[in-house]
Amino acid sequence: MKTRKLASLEVSALGAGAMSISANYGPPADKNQGIAVLREAHNRGVTFFDTAEVYGPYTSEELVGEALAPFRDKVVIATKFGFNIGGEGLNSRPEHIRTVVEASLKRLRTDRIDLLYQHRVDPAVPIEDVAGAVKALIAQGKVLHFGLSEASARTIRRAHAVQPVTAVQTEYSVMERDVERNGVLNICEELGIGFVPWGPVGMGYLTGTMNGATKLDPKTDFRSGFDRFTPANLAANQLIVDVLKTVGQRRNATPAQVSLAWLLAQKAFIVPIPGTRNPVHLRENLASIDLQLNPADLREIDSAFARMKLQGGRMNADQMRIVDADA
Which residues form the NADP-dependent oxidoreductase domain (predicted)? Predict the structure, then answer.
């Protein structure tokens, strides 16, 4: 497995996102199935696993903890704090962070969290206080590295001045490119911070398996409430999938593999975290590491994206209200 560095933290070039196994993309997978796919990921060279307390809630961390326990010292586990689970809104007060970390350590069956992200920036708590709380946890050895999720460039810079930020996680894919325009990728490059794209295959859309007839269960699939996943917009955005298929046919690759290879080609400090509960899809995703898109491939993809008018926002209004957009 090829490796990359998130600041000083060396990880596999592709990570494994665990959210979709336990929550948000349909009913939870059978626990044994989830354990099996995470362990197969490790057997195939993945060393970077991503979860969060809010996924489930809690069940994703429990799954990751059980799955990775036999080889805990050979992997990097990332988790997140920041939601007021059982209540409303966000909570990044330092005392809450400390409480969450203790609970996460138990669920993850470990004595340290390799990478701890603030899941969403809490406007009620200065980011300097958040960074200071994580810095104290790092001094205690309970956390090894600090990360931010869906943070603006300004917030990243302020946090980094207190406690160096190892990684920033934000949605990024062939079809979702806000981080190219809002300064987030630039600040990561400037400060030597790694970047971890979530939703690297467009929350499943860029696999080429979804279309205007796709039905998502509003009870179990949070994409059902996103504008981009309405039947009309699933059909309207097909152009970007078509170009991925065209490039893939030429390179003997699937659209998902082309999507992941495109991300890997953008910057050397990018480590995508595709998630799956399906071992066949896991193997498909991992094969993208060896797919080297040439300049003509990249131009074709980017030209097609430039010609299209993307339909639908990336998340619903409630979710976008807690994205830190103060650039």
Answer: 14-304
Closest CA to 108 of 132, 75, 133: 75
Domains of the chain: 3-203+257-291 (3.20.20.100)
282: left (phi over 0), alpha (psi -120 to 50) or beta: alpha
Predicted TM-score (pTM) of the model is: 0.97
Q: What is the pLDDT of residues 282-305, one digit of tens each?
A: 999 999 999 999 999 999 999 999
Active site residues: 55
Per-residue pLDDT tens digits for 306-315: 999 999 999 9
DSSP state of 206: G
The percentage of the chain sitting over the pLDDT mark of 90, rounded to a whole number, equals 98
| Strand boundaries in 73-201, DSSP class E | 76-81, 113-118, 143-149, 165-171, 194-198
CA distances to 90, 105, 106 from 87, rounded to whole Å, are: 9, 22, 22
